[in-house]
Specification:
Layout: H1 6-22, H2 28-43, H3 49-76, H4 82-127, H5 147-163, H6 172-180, H7 193-202, H8 208-240, H9 249-278, H10 297-303, H11 306-321, H12 324-336, H13 339-362, H14 366-395, H15 403-425, H16 429-438, H17 457-478, H18 483-488, H19 492-509
Helix pairs in contact: 1-2, 2-6, 3-4, 3-5, 3-6, 4-5, 6-7, 8-9, 8-17, 8-19, 9-15, 11-13, 12-13, 13-14, 15-16
């Protein structure tokens, strides 16, 4: 039951919305929870729902456990003197840490075992055990639907309770709905409890504006996914699956088309997800904010997969930075390095763990580790070399505020991102290296090569026109114009004419039917 299917959009979403509308307000959350469980079981093996139920139950009980520990401290601290209070507080803190460790072992441990056991076993076999004539056996493991997404949400909830951001929720249905809400379970966005839990639970009356704007967003996501991304997928697969046959411009085009594919598909999926939630008057966080207008890699990752980056910042970067061991390291650096390095070394060290996690989160493969390290190294170079770059610009009399320099920065960022996309898409690191080198071999600026890359002229034209439309819409959005709100204010005749025209464009130009393969969502695999 993929998001672009008739079954999801018409039957499932339509029926869920109808039931949600007619049910009394206090029972609406039950409609969403039941629909979420039904969706989960329909989209994967039925019995795998056990994993998300165990995750829901573990963090529900873990958060309450932490709450009870806090309540105990509050109730008895008034009866203690200062020294007793200090000792008891340390004991309470240790108990809460043990609860958090237990929650991480259950949830991150389950994810790590199912997703990474064979990867790390293979690495250990190659580097160590094969030399000792031993071997860790590979296991036939399964990966529950959405485990990479709902696990991060579960961990964020219990850690936020531990940090005192909010108290534990004693309503299991609300916790479970937060983790299983059907639009977000497959590809995110990775939400926070205080962002959406009460929105989902409180129940909303029918809202025509939210219904129409949600449908607009779904339609826009469909356009990006099945008109552009699924069509670009044909050329990308044609080259990447047989990369030894291609070089020069052919490989460059394939890399660019993959960048187009991944962006339009993932952002399109997020549009469908956010639109699906909006028809129920639930506002989900954005996951993309025009990333290809970024002037640096750091800015790009603040606009690309925003919720994953924010999660890694709040629960990896800050956790590492505030740990006791890291504070000692920070103290050592301050005593042995100058002011400039004493500021940068701790930050870049903590950042290392962020990018290792970012790479591994995307998949159990060495190429994803290299993918994360690629961006990490570039960011570290940029941070340490910033004074040098600044002096070079001054020496060349280049002003950062000038349009031409900003345009150069954007082009530079796009170039760097495309190399990252090559690493991300190539089957192996060896394939990525070969393709990168081949970009500079037999390079001839002859666009007729496109005719030999698995797409017709009509297909290429649709991709390019569709990409231009996405670019123009992104440019409008970058200027702060709210497109959907503007369309909603049009007169009823041009407004509905636009809606129907957009629908027919997706139906007529969508890459489906004879000659086209059904393309699964890329991020649904993570």
């Amino acid at each position: 039951m993929v998001y672009t299917s008739y079954v999801y959009l018409v039957l499932f979403l339509g029926m869920t919305f109808l039931l949600y509308t007619i049910f009394p307000k206090k029972y609406k959350w039950m409609v969403l929870l039941a629909a979420s469980y039904i969706y989960y079981m329909a989209a994967s093996r039925i019995w795998l729902i056990v994993f998300i139920l165990l995750t829901s139950l573990s963090v529900y009980l873990g958060a309450i456990w932490i709450d009870k520990i806090n309540e105990l401290f509050t109730s008895v601290k008034k009866l203690m003197d200062r020294q007793q209070k200090k000792e008891f507080k340390e004991k309470i803190l240790w108990q809460k840490k043990m609860v958090i460790v237990l929650m991480l072992l259950i949830n991150i441990g389950t994810l790590a075992f199912l997703k990474y056991f064979n990867f790390f076993a293979d690495v250990l076999n190659i580097t160590l055990f094969n030399q000792l004539h031993m071997e860790i056996p590979m296991l036939k493991l399964f990966l529950p639907l959405g485990i990479s997404f709902y696990t991060l949400q579960a961990v964020s909830y219990v850690i936020d309770v531990y940090r005192g951001k909010y108290k534990a929720d004693y309503h299991f249905g609300r916790v479970s709905l937060y983790l299983t809400f059907f639009p977000t379970i497959v590809e995110g966005p990775i939400t926070r409890y205080d962002q959406v839990a009460y929105q989902l639970y409180e129940g909303h009356e029918f809202n025509y504006v939210n219904l129409t704007q949600g449908c607009q967003l779904i339609l826009w996501g469909m356009f990006k996914k099945i008109v552009i991304a699924d069509r670009a997928n044909m050329l990308v697969n044609y080259v990447f699956n047989d990369y030894m046959k291609f070089s020069g411009l052919s490989v460059v085009i394939a890399i660019i088309f993959y960048t187009i594919q991944l962006y339009t598909e993932f952002s399109g999926a997020m549009d469908i997800v956010r639109g699906s939630a909006q028809i129920f008057s639930v506002e989900l966080p954005e996951n993309f904010k025009q990333p290809f207008f970024s002037k640096s890699i750091n800015e790009f990752w603040q606009k690309w997969h925003i919720t994953l980056g924010a999660w890694l910042r709040d629960y990896v970067f800050y956790s590492v930075s505030l740990s006791g061991a890291f504070k000692k390291f920070n103290h050592f650096v301050k005593n042995h390095c100058n002011e400039y390095f004493s500021k940068l070394l701790p930050a870049t060290t903590a950042l290392f763990f962020v990018w290792i996690c970012n790479g591994l989160w995307h998949g159990a493969s060495m190429k994803y580790v290299v993918y994360g390290m690629y961006y990490y190294i570039l960011m570290v170079i940029g941070m340490f070399m910033e004074p040098v770059f600044h002096k070079i610009l001054e020496a060349l009399h280049i002003q950062k505020e000038k349009t031409y320099f900003k345009f150069f920065q954007i082009l530079r960022t796009v170039f760097i991102v495309n190399i990252g996309m090559l690493i991300f898409r190539a089957d192996t690191l060896s394939a990525a290296y070969h393709m990168f080198i081949s970009c500079f071999q037999n390079f001839h600026l002859d666009l007729s090569v496109i005719a030999h890359l698995g797409l017709s002229v009509a297909d290429v034209s649709i991709i390019l026109i569709g990409t231009l439309v996405v670019f123009i819409m992104s440019l409008i959005k970058e200027k702060g114009i709210h497109i959907r709100e503007s369309i909603s204010k049009w007169h009823i005749v041009p407004r509905w004419s636009f809606y129907l025209t957009s629908l027919f464009v997706v139906i007529i130009f969508g890459a489906y039917g004879r000659g086209y393969d059904i393309v699964s969502f890329i991020y649904a695999q993570f």
